Structure formats: C-alpha cells, structure tokens
Amino acid sequence: MTTNIFKSAIAALALLVAFNSCKEEKTKFHIEVACDPEQGTITGGGEYEEGEKATLTAIANPGYYFARWVGDYKSEDSVLTITVTANKSLSAIFGKIESSEYGSVKITISEGGTYYLYEAIPNENCYFVKWSDGSYELSKKVDVSAGENLTATFKPYPEGSIHALFFVSPTKRVIFSKGYLQFNPSLGTHTRADGTTAPGTWRFAENQTNMINSDLNVSATYDGWIDDFAWGTSGWSGSGATYYRPYDGYNSDDISEIPDSVGKLYGPQGEYDLTGDYAYADWGVYNPISNGGDKPGMWRTLTRDEFKSFLCTYYIEKYFRCLNGFVFYSGDYPLKDNEVINTPNDLSKYNNLLYFETLKEHWIANYSDEFSAKAVGISDMLNSNMGWSYKRFSRLPVRLVMDVEE
To answer: Taking the mean position of all CA atoms in its chain, how far away is CA 317?
Structure first.
C-alpha cells in the first residue's frame, strides 16, 4: 500500500516537472533611461517582462525644470507610463531656471540642439519689461552658435494699476490706472509737486466701470467724490486760468460766453498736450493719487499722439495684439493670437484689461479746434469716426497712465 502511494507521488511529480518544462518563459526587455545628473534624476528604468507597465519619473534638481522626453517616446509629462513591448531608450531633457525677485527665466535647448528657448515668467502681480537685447517677446529663440546669454528685466505692477501693458507707440508702453480718477475736496490734504499743501484727496475708482459722472454743483466745501473734471484742472494755477480747480469748469456750449481764461486751462493756444511747461496742469503729475503710490509725478494723461497710436493699434485695426509681437498679459481671459474684436460686446469679457463703452470715454488731447479736448468712445474707435468732441472746459471722467519702466 505504502509502495503504491509512493509510486503515485513520484508519477505526479514527474508530470509537474514535465508541464513546467513545457511552459514558455516570458520575454524580458530593457528600458534604458539617461539624463544629465547635474540637472536631474530618473526613476523607473530597468528590465521588464513583455506586457508590463513601466512608469518613468523625471525629477529636476534645484535650479532646473523638466522640459521633455526624447528618444523612443516623446512627451512633456514628467511622469510617463508605457507598456513594455521591446527594448526602449529615452532621455529626459531638463532646462535651467534663473530666478529673480519679480520673475524667472526658463532656458532649454531644442531637440536638435540648434537653439536655446528663453521664456520669461513674471511672478504674480509683476510684469516682464524686456530682454537684455531690447526685445519684448515673452519667449525667444537664440541660436546656439550665437553664444548669446539673455537676461530678463521684471518689475512689480504699480499700486492702482490694471495688470496689463499697452503700446502707445512702436517702442513705448504704458500701464493704465485701474479706474477713473476721483477727487474729494473736503477729505484730508495732499502735498503737490511744487511742495504746497492743498485740501482734498485724489484716488482711483476701485474698478474700471465705477463712474459717478453726475452733474454736481460741487465746491471747495463739497464732501463727496467727483470724477468730472475740466481738461487740465489739476489745481495748478500757473496757466493763469480762472477755472483750474478740479471742481471748476465752464459748461456752456456757447463759444461767445467762454471767458478768455478758459483758453489757458491746459497750455497756450495751439498746444493741447499736458506736457512741457504745462505738465503741472496734468492731474497725476501735479498731485499724488492716494491709492496709486501717493506721490506726485507717477501718473499722467496720454498725449494726443499716444492715444491716436493706441486706437489705431488696438481698435481700428481690430486686433488685440501689441507691436513687435508682444502680447500683453491678461487675467481671467487669456487673449488668443490674432483675436478679432468686432463689436463693443466682444470687449465685455476683457473687463480686467480696458473697459470701453460709448458712455465711458477716455480723454485725449485735442486735434480739432482750440476749444476742444477729445473724448472718444469705443463705437467711434471701431467706426474710425473721430470727429466729435467735448468742449475742453466741460467735465468728463479721465483715466491716467504710468510709463513702463524700461
């Protein structure tokens, strides 16, 4: 009996050995990975059986970032999962990050090794100014053979500004105030550019669409905010004008009733920009803006030529596109290349950039007659109709700009 059991066990063992010897072994493949050890490391390489999943992870060292996989697989995801079916070879390409107080620059070499790609990345609430070669593009290719090493300049957005840059000439950019200029004649005091102290406080409205724009009979004792100003009524009396305070203005359309002094509101006849000897007639030049840095000389109005260039660049040509290929920053609604703006409604979603409506005009210096200062609405921009204006001694809201620090 025992002998028979033993014989049966021997037979079963022989069958098992025979079965296993007939079973085909799985093929194994090697996943080879490589990178510059000074720039980063890779996990997941090695030997795998056919059909297994291999997860490769590229980890950048401090001062570097993962750019892409090259070789048998191409991807820009730092974690790559593949099904192993053959021997494969991959390399992880890392780029260098140069960080500064207000932004950083990513530098990576092209797959063919012919050029470096430089990318400027501003920190939150900051903007990219330009590259060391004077160009404005956020990303720039530089031939390896050129041996060029670009550096980027970044700046923080000024207090009271919207976070966008706008060209007002082929080489000049400005930053718009976040809202219309407002003044309270009875709230506190402010020190003006000439060192004198005057009653009242200047501020920017908290958002672009906040406009008081009411026909108030205001005076030096009025305790409330106003945003309707006669052109150039900064508080500076150096022009010799009778009407120069922010709450002054002559509101008649009858030219025969215009006092001679009104013609001196913002400079000599025939000159309509608030610049040069008459810069003090400009609100932001002469006065500090309480929520815009609180120092005189930081803000100003656009000149006639700047505003004309701005309109032609953005609205009459109907492209939200800057000159020299520079695309200005946006917030909730990033702009697309060559996006066409056809109607005022098309602009409504860009409320965080510049908000124009027919009744939300922006001052522009006069170029029609000696008694006018131009205020243009978006409907006029899109129709190329620049023929209407308000008398320069009438009251209208105003937006100020700050020059971009180069």
So the answer is: 21
> Would you state the structure tokens that stand for residue 167, as one six-digit string?
């060209």
57 vs 16: CA distance, rounded Å: 41
Q: Give every CB contact of residue 217 below 8 A, 6+ residues apart in sequence.
A: none
**Residue 54 structure tokens:** 């291999």
Q: What is the pTM of this model?
A: 0.72
From 211, 195, 216, 204, select the one nearest 292 (Cα to Cα). Answer: 204
Name which of 206, 205, 252, 256 is nearest 397 in CA terms.
Answer: 205
Residues 326 and 167 sit within 8 Å (Cβ to Cβ): yes
Which tokens in the block code for residue 143? 């031939």
Q: If DSSP codes are grouped into helix, strand and coil, which group holds residue 6? A: helix
Q: Are residues 152 and 169 in the same domain?
A: no
pLDDT tens for 330-366 read 333 444 444 444 333 444 444 334 433 333 455 655 4
Distance (Å, rounded) from C-alpha 173 to C-alpha 295? Answer: 21
362 close to 399: Cβ distance less than 8 angstroms = yes
- DSSP letter, residue 75: B
Pair 87, 115 in one domain: no
H-type alpha helices, 253-360: 283-286, 304-311
83 and 139 within one domain: no
